[in-house]
Fold these 2 entries.
Entry 1:
Amino acid sequence: MKRIENEMKLRLPAKSENEGAARSAVSAFVAILNPTVEELGDIRLAVSEAVTNAIVHAYGGDGEGLIYISVRLYSDREITVEISDKGCGIEDVERAKEPFYTTGSGEERCGMGFLVMQTFTDALSVKSKVGRGTTVLMRKKLHP
Ligand SMILES: Nc1ncnc2c1ncn2[C@@H]1O[C@H](COP(=O)(O)OP(=O)(O)OP(=O)(O)O)[C@@H](O)[C@H]1O
Ligand SMILES: [Mg+2]
C-alpha cells in the first residue's frame, strides 16, 4: 500500500501576485522528489491555472477570499495537488471543463485552464457547489 511520505499545506489570500508565489512554493516542495524539468514544468502550469481560476472566477478578482493548497508526496512517487476555494462555485462542472468554455469577459480568458490541468497531469477531479466553493484535485506520477 502506498503511504503519504510528505505533505505541505498553504493558505494564501486570493491576490493576483500570489499566483506566482503558489506556483513557486508547490514546485519547491515537489522538487524534493527530484522530478525532471519537464515534470516540474507541467506541475507549475497546472497549479497556475487552478490558482488563477480561484483568484479570477471564484472570488471575482478583487483580492478577497482565501485559497487552500495541499500537496502530498506518496511513497510510489505519485504527487497530488489539491487547490480549494470558498468562492462562488461552478454550476455545471462538465461544461466548465469543455475547451473554450469561459464565463470570463475580455480577451485574457479563453477557456483553456481545465484543459491545461487535464493535459499536464495524470488525473483531474473537480468538485464544486454553487455558493460554497470549488476543489480541484490533480494527480501526477513522477518518473521512477
Ligand atoms: N474556482 C472556480 N470557481 C468558480 N468558477 C470557476 C472556477 N474555476 C473555473 N471556473 C469556471 O469554469 C470556466 C472555465 O475555466 P477555465 O480555466 O477552463 O477557463 P477560463 O479561466 O475561463 O479561461 P483561461 O483559463 O483560459 O484563462 C471559467 O470561465 C469559470 O466560469
Ligand atoms: Mg482559467
Entry 2:
Amino acid sequence: MLNKVSNTPLSVDWLLDKFNQSRKYSTDLIRGLSAEDCQSQSMEDASPAKWHLAHVTWFYEVMVLKVLERNFQYWNPQFAVLFNSYYNGVGDKHPRSKRGLLTRPSLEEVLQWRKNIEDRINHLIKENTSSELQWLIQLGINHEQQHQELLLTDIQHLFFNNSLLPAYSSEAINIPLVINPFEWIDGISGLVEIGFQGEGFHFDNESPAHTSFNYPHVISNQLVSNAQWLLFLQDGAYQDPRWWLDAGWAWVQAERITAPLYWNVDDNKQYCQFSLNGNQPLNPLAPVSNISYFEADAFARWSQKNIPEFKGARLPTESEWEAFAKVKPDLASNLFGKVWQWTSSNYNPYPGYQPWGGVTGEYNGKFMVNQMVLRGSSAYTPKGHARVSYRNFFPTHARWQMTGLRLAKDGF
Ligand SMILES: [Fe+2]
C-alpha cells in the first residue's frame, strides 16, 4: 500500500505538464555534452550522464508502467538490471562502480527508450486518474529532479579530472554572493513543529510532522564565505589535529585533503575554483562549497577561536534550521539556491516514521545510518524541488555535491 499525497485528484493537464517539463529538462542538460562526455564515470559515487538519463527512465518503466500499464512489455528486459540503482526488491543490479563501462546501449538508444517511455506515460496519465498513479508520477518527477542535480555535480567532477579543465557551460551558473552584513539572529527556541505539513508531494523521510525542542540559540544570516575559509586554510587548520573529529583527522590525512574539493592554485599562485563554468579565480564573497561534514565541523571549531564574531559557533541542528527557515525566511535570503548546508543532525527517522510501502520503501529509509542531514538547496537543485522540510543526506566525507555551511551558537 502506497502513501498517497491526497485523495483530491490532480488536474491531468497539470500533471502532464509537470511530467513533460521534467523530462525535457533532463535532455536539455546534456545539450552541450558529447556522447563521450555522457559515457564516463569519474568515481564510484558519481554516475555517467547517460546512466542518469537511463535510470530515471527505468524508474518509470519498472515502478509505474510494469505495475499499471495494460499489456506491459519491456523495451528491453536487460535494462531492468543495467539501470537499477539500489532496489533489491526489484532484482539484480549492474555494479555501481562499473556504470562507466556500459558502452551499450548507446546514448542514441537510451534517448529512443526515453521517448518510448514518455509516450506511454503520457498515455497512462490521461487514461488513469487514480491517486496511486498520480502519486507515482509525482515521485517519478521528484526522483528525476534529484538525478538532474546529480548529473550536474557528476559532470563537474568528471571535467575536474580532465587536465583541460573544460567548461560545461559558458553561461554563469547563478550562485548569488554573500553580501549582507553578518548578523546573529535569534533562533526559534522551545517546542517547535518540524516536518512536512499540509498537502502536496513530499518524501517519506520528511514525515511525520512532530514536536521538537530547541534550546535557546542564534543562527547566522550568512553562509560561510570563501574569504572566511581562506583564513581557515591559511592558518594551517588542515594540518592541525586540534580542530578535527578523530575520524575527520584520519580522513584528512589518508586523502591528503588540503582545501575544498574544487580549489586549486594557478600558475600565478592565485587560488582558483573549478566550476561548471571552468576554472575561475576564487571569489572571496561566494559561499564556500564542496566541503565535507568533517571540514564543516572543523571550521566551526576553529572559527570559535579565530574569528571574533564566531565565538562559540557550531553547526545548527536540523530542527534549529527548519524552525528558523519557517518563521524567518526573509532574514536569511540564502537558505535556498546557493549551497546545501550541513547540520549537526544524524540522518535518523522522525518519531513514528514508516517507509513507504512496496519497493518504493527502499527510497529513503534504508539509508538512515552513518549520514548527516543537509538543509536548503543548491544552485544546481531544479527549481521547485526543495522545501523547508526537505532532508538531504550524505556521509561525513562526501563533498562532490555543492555543500557549505551556516553557523549557529548557543545563546542564553
Ligand atoms: Fe535514483
